Structures are given as structure tokens and as C-alpha cells.
Amino acid sequence: MITKEYSNGEVSIVWKPEKCIHSGICVKTLPKVYNPKERPWIKAENASSEEIIRQVSKCPSGALSIRQESKTMVKIDREDNGKKGRFVIYANDTFAGEMTYVWAGESRFIIDHTGIEENFIGRGLGKQLVMKAVAYARNNDLKILPLCPFAKKVFDKDKGLEDVRA
Length: 166
Ligand code: SF4
Hints:
The protein is α+β, with helices and mostly antiparallel strands. The protein has helices at residues 25-29, 49-56, 125-139, 149-157, and strands at residues 4-7, 11-15, 64-68, 74-80, 84-91, 94-103, 108-116, 143-146. It has two domains: 4-68, 2-Layer Sandwich (Alpha-Beta Plaits); 74-164, 3-Layer(aba) Sandwich (Aminopeptidase), CATH 3.40.630.
């Protein structure tokens, strides 16, 4: 059976198209995540894990389910002084890395650096930082200029992020 996964960095929405009865309940209950007119049609990064889990439990067909990303408890905080800021990621309460940005006007920010601590490299935390910034930008009607080579690579690979790219 075909299975597709869409992650918000903490949980993945697992979708089995063959089970989907197209009742549209997902679209009605969480339109910021489910939009059949866009590709990918599920944008998990647009909602919190709690919202996603609550919505998935309403799918009548079992086409949607949840997969926890990992047993590591990941937390991302944002710090901002009005000129620049950073998204800081903690894995099980330990500092694991950061992604820094500077404001370029009121509605745009530049991601200039992403750095993951050596012990945490290879766990997808850098991508989680980028997706957190994407969710923040979408929720606040902002655009991102990904100058940091890592962030740029994430944007280049995922055409679904074009809507927030400056
Ligand atoms: S709620 Fe479930 S069955 Fe209905 S359209 Fe969404 S995925 Fe398909």
C-alpha cells in the first residue's frame, strides 16, 4: 500500500491514499495543513503537533495516522531583539543547535547560519529549524531569504516552500 509522510519536525502525518474516502474532513477541520489544490497537499509544518494529532483522530477512514518523529523530545525556541534573532533547538533539554537570522525590513528575514552541535548531527535537527522558521513565516505573513547554504538547500529541494521564499 502506498504511504506518504509529511512532517512538521516533531510528528509526521502518515497518509494512505488507497484508504482515503475523500470525505474532506481533514480539509474542513485544518485547512492550513490540508489543501488538495497545492503540492504537497499536506503541509504539516503549518500546524502544531497538538493540532495535527487532534485533527488526524477525526479522519473517518483511517487514511491518516501519526508517527512520532523520534523518542527524542525536541523543543525549538525563538529569540528576537527586533534586529536579529535565532531559533534554538533543544533535544531532551540539551542545547543541540541554532539557526540565526537578521531582519531585512518588516516582512522579510534572512537566514544566515544554521549550526548543529557535533553530537546531534545527522538527526534532521537542522531541517526542523528551517521548518520552524517556515511555519513562523507563514503564520505571520513573512518571507524568508535563505542565504545560509544549508537552509538554501532545504528550500531548493522542496518546491512546497516557494510561497515563503523571498
Ligand atoms: S479526512 Fe481522511 S478520508 Fe477524509 S479526505 Fe482526509 S484523509 Fe481522506
